[in-house]
Amino acid sequence: MNQTKWNHLKQELFSSKPGIAALCLLIVLMLGAIFAFLSPYDPNLMNAGKPFSTPDGSHWFGTDDYGRDYFARALYGGRVSLLVGFASMVMATAIGVAVGVISGYFGGWIDSLLMRALDVISSIPSFLVLLLLSVFLKPSVGNIIVIIALLMWMNVARIVRAETMSIKEREYVLYARASGQGAGGMILLHIIPGLIPVIIVGATNNIASAIMMESSLSFLGFGVQPPNATWGSMLNSAQGYIAQAPYLALFPGLLILLTVLSFNVLGDILRVGLEPKLDRR
Amino acid sequence: MRQMIIRRLLQTIPLLFFVSIVCFAMIKLAPGDPVLSFVTPNMHADDIERIRHNLGLDRPAYIQYLLWLKQLLQGDLGYSLVNHQPVLGQIIDRLPATAGLMGSAILIAVLLAIPLGLIAGANRNRWIDKIINLIAYIGISVPLFWLAILLIYIFAIKLSLLPSMGMRTIGEESIGDVLRHGILPCSVLAFGFLAGYVRYIRSSTIGQLKEDYVQIQYAFGSNKWTILFRHVIKHVLLPIITLLGMSMGDLVAGAIVTETVFSWPGIGSLGMTAVRGMDYPIIMGITLFSSLLLILGNLAADILYAIVDPRMKVKG
Question: What top-level branch of life does the organism fall under (chain B) (predicted)?
Fold first, then answer.
């Protein structure tokens, strides 16, 4: 990717207040997840405080039904939620880019085959498949990451394919091919670098949807299993105590909302920044 | 135009075929032996083998698939492993609750999204646009189950205004009662749909306002609101057809979480119960049903779009 595009992107990102806010928020959330061990409370330690104590100076988010410190649980829960989001995104993006590049670069029957397969997978509502697979397989963090990734790569594949088809007709690519460069080298050296903008945008949107999928799954009780928490599973248990301790439901949901919102805002800013043809919004 | 419709229809058939293969493969890959649900403790091993034979489970997978497909085409989706009732019948029983809930949510969302999207698009980057945009961003980012819990807390627990569970009060048969039960789940779903629609309408309004006909109307001295709600709206409504078609695919999957939170007796909560009870025939039935809706929804959107917008004639 060339320098002007990066500069344009930086300018777009840092000139937008929502963009800066989203970036700062995500950095804080990630630092919280990374440095969760600095919290004085063990997230799974019962009776760290009186059960259902409302938020105060020693328990910032209060305590839950077992008297566990809710702030520590939220930090560790965020760790899992963010990890699932990132890992699924990386995997989904890798699959999407591979399928998209191969489809777009080689065209012909390979393209038709891959695209028809993509149509079939996109025709089955992914949340149902997600539920189903998480029942079949043991719902460990690793399995959940893989399942979510397998249901999310299609959008990236579509965008990457379209972009590959346009890049491979550009002059520098045609020159490289004329000079005898093989297909593998062509893809790695000339096609993929040109794809980076669309990959970044697709990846950002994918994190948002992966985090949302994981939360919904854990909320329904099919995600990461207790005693480990994610924001979704915290909401699941909070639901039962909504009348006596509404703050237990408030915090995890707010954290999901802020995280997903930030990634969505960033995704849109990046999209506009990387494709100057698009209207500034 | 007719050619385009025929071509889209023909593309749909292999798609349905492959979707059915994927669904069948998923049943086959499911852990657990379906025969076990027919086995009673005092059965002999021979009896179990006979059941396996009667169910066709001792034949090669592709024969099993063809037999399954044949049944499927006759509308036979098999029987629940839990209550042994036909799957199709159970789905049809639950359909009105889901269709009513999702239909009204989509309708409310569209009716609100049109004015909001038009106003936001026409006042780009002004405060009203920023507010509408923020609402839309929150709508696509908020976990709907969380919104549902908050609404239950406020309206059912704190204010005791609305019921938070089910579709009917026991012993009461009035439509008003169903409507009262529907307010909270419907608002949650409508908010989710609204966000996507508003963003779509807003950006197409921005595009439309650059068109020549808008400039001409301005030149004739029409004011902004007349142009917006008499002319631009016609062009903006077109893509909504596509959006509605695509919403069909969300009909069931989108309802799972919301129906579960509110114990709404629709297909979504049927699916959840089936997942918890490992009732594969029901899960597969619902998966197939919602895939069919998704494919037909996209097909209907494409065809309607071609009928309404003749410029689309040639593109397939």
Answer: Bacteria
